[in-house]
């Protein structure tokens, strides 16, 4: 699971209770104790340490990118990560997909009464590491505690704020025929890691979540050219959903090639056993970019040299045909429509 | 490289077989693939786009999701709604519409509905939750019957009393005979369901091939398998060979899997069965034997009178029989879409209507 | 209703009185019940459906298929 060496050098702070109590969310002494002992040591910085009800930060002229997301993943610890780093990376990515440099995060926790402090501590350690890696500061937060049974151990909401460079205009409505579609790495790792680790399925899978912050990759991409048309991370609903969103927003067609989609052998095997289409499965450390054809090759090379980008591939292109639709040329040479999946991906036997 | 899977997806071999089919066929033929898994493979790989136009593929009724009677879905929902019940099912069944809702919607009202990968998983849930009643929706063809039977057999052996199955099993040969004896039947050759035959063998198809004068080829599921099966059927049709020949040599034997057949015999017995959209077919289903009646959810729990009502617009049955094509249904693509299905053939990802929905918009 | 996957038997064991095996699907390992292929041994390949092995893959027959495809190529090129 979490191989963070910090776990060994950074033991759980000692508190009166070893599990979360309702009083920890009530705003009084116990709440303060919780913040001081558990949260501040992890996220502490000049702004947060003031412990005001709000964070006041200076703004540059220009445009802000703001994104919010809530994280309710079950199980909260999965191969390759946990809900904490997912929350940090997920929101950093949402902000970064606009081309913005992510600067600040807010974090809201909803904790279930009875949650072991040790679990909270491990999650906070991961968030600290993820925030440091991404280069973002957690400037304000909130904690509520609900009755046992009212939430599934821990829910996290994060809001991210970033600054968009002046010369960057990335939008799902900006795709044009001739653009190439690039994916920064292998598909379906996160979703299959979570699915195969659910209780009941006795998989010994080596599939790990790909959760990762992609803002550094994106700033390198912008250095190649600010003229990136569209960027999105294919989270829930997978690559199929993101490409369909692009196709509809821009009213163009997208054609992808079956053989070009990178996938790790273990992930592929897990998909095959459960009958799940990897294009429909969530990714948490990948981006899809639509870039003008003439810069695609250079862009691909730059992505491949980034951490998290070594399996990047060009998987398709934007075309005039079938506007609003995503089609795939199969290995046999036939054409198939790739729809958005209808709902949760479930193991099937048909 | 997934061994014994990827070799059968080799596009070069597939193209070779396609070429051979083109060189072999001299007149139009109508061929049906029985199993929904084969339909799925055909659609996924675009095989029917690639075949010579002389060959018309009709998608068969081999989709247990599609043919599970609406009464069973309604009963499943009623059982799932009972207090203290954990209702378990293969994922495929959760979005199949009953008269009014589906199991997913029941789950959203607070019922404990869980998808499982195997009936043994369901049995394990029963072991771990002794104070709850665990019910498993046991649907499928002969392929799934041994596993579903084993769960009951095992529960009985271990004395687990909080486990039961709501059974709706269907058998392929009687359905094939019904299709073949219909005056509207246009199908001339059949790809038999490979995994059904892995369990049951192909002996029971020999008299059918002879009586109705149709070639029958137990076929696998990967694109090379399906194409090879089609090639074999075409070759047999071209020389009036009405027998059974096995394409799926690596997996299927003539006598099938004897231990699997034994457990089906032990736990289940043949019964008359309703096929959604087609109607009743005599001796085409399985029910739990009296000696295991404690494990029969239909007997264990009383359910208020269920009045099942199909959508009046839905033509699933006629489509399942290959008589009409999905795009000939007035509701197709309008009132009935994958987002809002009226019948099972639109819900199931191997249902003929769902498959057509993907193509129709390309034209 | 036939989604089944080929995999290699790595280890045979018993659980709750049932013959089981760990099956390797090219990296992902999952257990399956082998009551219907009770003679199967480690190293052999099988087809698993819904957690049950339903057939032992006959590797000789598979080889014959591969050879038949070579024959096909020759026929086409004639």
Describe the secondary structure blueprint for this structure.
The complex is a heterotrimer of chains A (350), B (363) and C (78).
Chain A: H1 6-9, H2 29-43, H3 46-49, E1 63-71, E2 77-78, E3 81-82, H4 83-96, E4 101-112, H5 117-134, E5 137-146, E6 154-164, E7 180-183, H6 189-196, H7 215-224, E8 230-232, H8 238-250, E9 253-257, H9 265-274, E10 288-291, H10 293-305, E11 313-319, E12 326-329, E13 335-337
Parallel strand pairs in A: 4-5, 9-12
Antiparallel strand pairs in A: 1-6, 2-3, 4-6, 7-10, 7-11, 8-10, 9-11, 12-13
Chain B: H1 11-24, E1 29-35, H2 36-45, H3 47-50, E2 55-62, H4 64-67, H5 70-80, E3 85-90, H6 103-108, E4 112-116, H7 119-128, E5 133-140, H8 145-158, E6 163-170, H9 172-181, E7 189-193, H10 194-200, H11 206-212, E8 216-219, H12 223-238, H13 258-267, E9 268-275, E10 279-288, H14 297-300, H15 316-320, H16 344-347, H17 352-360
Parallel strand pairs in B: 1-2, 1-7, 3-4, 3-5, 5-6, 7-8
Antiparallel strand pairs in B: 6-10, 9-10
Helix pairs in contact in B: 1-12, 7-8, 8-13
Chain C: E1 5-15, E2 18-25, E3 28-33, E4 45-49, E5 52-56, H1 59-77
């Amino acid at each position: 699971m979490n191989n963070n060496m910090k776990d060994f050098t950074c033991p759980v702070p000692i508190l009166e209770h070893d599990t979360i109590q309702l009083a920890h969310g009530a705003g009084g002494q116990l709440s303060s104790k919780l913040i001081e002992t558990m949260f501040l040591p992890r996220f502490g910085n000049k702004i947060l340490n003031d412990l005001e009800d709000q964070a006041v930060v200076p703004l540059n002229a220009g445009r802000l990118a703001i994104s919010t997301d809530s994280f309710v993943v079950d199980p909260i610890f999965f191969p390759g990560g946990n809900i904490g780093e997912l929350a940090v990376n997920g929101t950093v990515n949402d902000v970064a997909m606009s081309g913005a440099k992510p600067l600040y995060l807010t974090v809201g926790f909803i904790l279930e009464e009875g949650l072991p402090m040790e679990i909270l501590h491990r999650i906070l350690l991961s968030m600290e590491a993820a925030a440091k890696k991404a280069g973002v500061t957690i400037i304000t937060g909130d904690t509520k505690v609900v009755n046992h049974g009212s939430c599934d151990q821990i829910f996290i909401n994060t809001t991210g704020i970033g600054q968009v460079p002046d010369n960057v205009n990335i939008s799902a409505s900006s795709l044009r025929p001739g653009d190439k579609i690039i994916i920064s790495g292998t598909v379906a790792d996160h979703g299959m890691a979570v699915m195969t680790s659910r209780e009941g399925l006795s998989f010994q899978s080596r599939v790990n979540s790909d959760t990762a912050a992609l803002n550094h990759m994106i700033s390198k991409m912008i250095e190649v050219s600010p003229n990136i048309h569209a960027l999105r991370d294919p989270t829930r609903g997978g690559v199929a959903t993101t490409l369909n969103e692009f196709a509809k927003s821009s009213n163009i067609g997208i054609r992808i090639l079956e053989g070009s989609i990178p996938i790790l052998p273990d992930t592929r095997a897990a998909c095959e056993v459960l009958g799940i289409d990897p294009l429909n499965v969530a990714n948490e450390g990948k981006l899809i970019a639509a870039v003008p054809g003439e810069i695609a090759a250079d862009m691909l090379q730059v992505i491949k040299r980034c951490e998290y980008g070594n399996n990047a591939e060009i998987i398709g292109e934007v075309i005039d045909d079938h506007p609003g639709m995503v089609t795939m040329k199969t290995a046999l040479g036939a054409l198939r429509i790739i729809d958005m999946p209808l709902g949760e991906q479930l193991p099937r036997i048909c | 490289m997934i061994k014994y899977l990827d070799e059968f997806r080799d596009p070069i071999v597939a193209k070779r077989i396609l070429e051979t089919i083109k060189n072999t066929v001299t007149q139009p033929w109508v061929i049906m693939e029985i199993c929904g898994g084969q339909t799925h493979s055909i659609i996924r790989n675009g095989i029917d786009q690639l075949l010579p136009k002389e060959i018309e593929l009709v998608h068969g009724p081999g989709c247990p999701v599609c043919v599970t009677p609406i009464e069973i879905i309604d009963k499943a929902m009623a059982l799932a709604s009972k207090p203290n019940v954990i209702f378990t099912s293969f994922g495929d069944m959760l979005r199949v519409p009953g008269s009014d809702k589906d199991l997913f919607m029941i789950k959203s009202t607070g019922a404990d509905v869980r998808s499982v990968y195997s009936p043994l998983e369901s049995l394990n849930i029963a072991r771990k939750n002794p104070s709850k009643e665990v019910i498993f929706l046991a649907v499928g063809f002969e392929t799934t019957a041994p596993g579903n039977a084993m769960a009951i057999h095992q529960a009985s052996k271990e004395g687990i009393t909080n486990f039961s199955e709501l059974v709706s099993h269907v058998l392929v040969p009687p359905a094939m005979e019904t299709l073949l004896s219909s005056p509207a039947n246009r199908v001339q050759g059949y790809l038999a369901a490979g995994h059904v035959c892995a369990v049951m063998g192909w002996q029971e198809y020999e008299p059918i091939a002879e009586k109705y004068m149709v070639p029958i080829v137990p076929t696998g599921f990967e694109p090379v398998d399906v194409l090879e099966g089609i090639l074999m059927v075409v070759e047999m049709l071209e020389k009036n060979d009405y027998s059974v020949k096995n394409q799926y040599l690596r997996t299927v034997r003539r006598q099938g899997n004897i231990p699997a057949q034994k457990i089906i015999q032990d736990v289940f017995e043949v019964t008359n069965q309703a096929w959604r959209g087609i109607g009743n077919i005599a001796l085409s289903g399985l029910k739990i034997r009296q000696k295991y009646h404690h494990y029969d959810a239909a007997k264990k729990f009383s359910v208020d009178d269920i009045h099942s009502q199909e959508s009046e617009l839905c033509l699933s049955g006629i489509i399942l029989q290959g008589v009409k094509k999905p795009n000939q249904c007035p509701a197709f693509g309008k009132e009935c879409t994958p987002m809002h299905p009226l019948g099972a053939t639109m819900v199931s990802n191997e249902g003929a209507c769902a498959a057509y929905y993907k193509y129709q918009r390309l034209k | 209703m036939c989604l089944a996957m080929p995999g290699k038997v790595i280890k045979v064991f018993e659980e709750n009185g049932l013959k089981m095996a760990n099956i390797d699907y090219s990296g992902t390992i999952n257990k399956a019940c082998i009551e219907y292929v009770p003679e199967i041994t480690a190293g052999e390949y099988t087809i698993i459906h819904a957690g049950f092995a339903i057939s032992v893959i006959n590797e000789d027959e598979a080889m014959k298929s591969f050879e038949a495809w070579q024959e096909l190529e020759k026929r086409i090129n004639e």
